[in-house]
């Protein structure tokens, strides 16, 4: 499996705060904790590498003077943006969003990632990528450096895109831990610069970068990360209910889950992508229904905990 690395830059517009009733806002430290992860001296050590990952990824990164080995020590830079009143309303939706599901074996709590949770999320994604790409684990720090640059850039696009994180606590008294993550883009402003092929519509919601911690798979967590994403999208959009994602052709279990969740194939990669050292992929689409509480759906934990879809990092 090959990793495609590309560079992009997302400029900010400098608007006068007195014009168009726009509001000046600093997007770091945006979200206050509603459900904090238990701290340790080194949270990264809590992460486990994952396998069965079904994705290649496209990393969009900016230049940095930091070394790959020190990516966990570098906090995301503070960036300032101007928010219109509708954008501020969407920020509030993201800030307050919560998805809770009770299993027989434990509980899952999903919400928008906070700034101080970026490093453990980067660690989970980088170890998942290293495993899926069959890379030695010594490359985890290199992947982590690139993934963090991508996530910092994507976070600057709030509220047009968001990273969700899921925390799991078992019934037998284990400490709460990061169980999985997923990225959702809601509109054209939040779309990826270089999405995987086949290319989804830029103005439609898109789910990507989803993975579940290796030791917590086959518990239904992946299914509910998907459902949490689908529940959030209608709250962030008033128009299109079509949501897209990618699935590699070789990944039978995730494909079965997607079809079970209501996704249909829209387009499939040409065989020519094999010459680019990429796996052929399906672009899948679902028309989101109007429902109020998908977290109450039945627990389907037989095959839904694989890393789920194409990751365009």
From TrEMBL:
Region of interest (Disordered), residue spans: 294-313
Domain N-acetyltransferase: 174-263
GO molecular function, one term: acyltransferase activity, transferring groups other than amino-acyl groups
Lineage, uppermost ranks: Eukaryota, Viridiplantae, Streptophyta, Embryophyta, Tracheophyta
Bias-annotated ranges (Low complexity): 294-306
Protein name: N-acetyltransferase domain-containing protein
InterPro entries: Acyl_CoA_acyltransferase, GNAT_dom
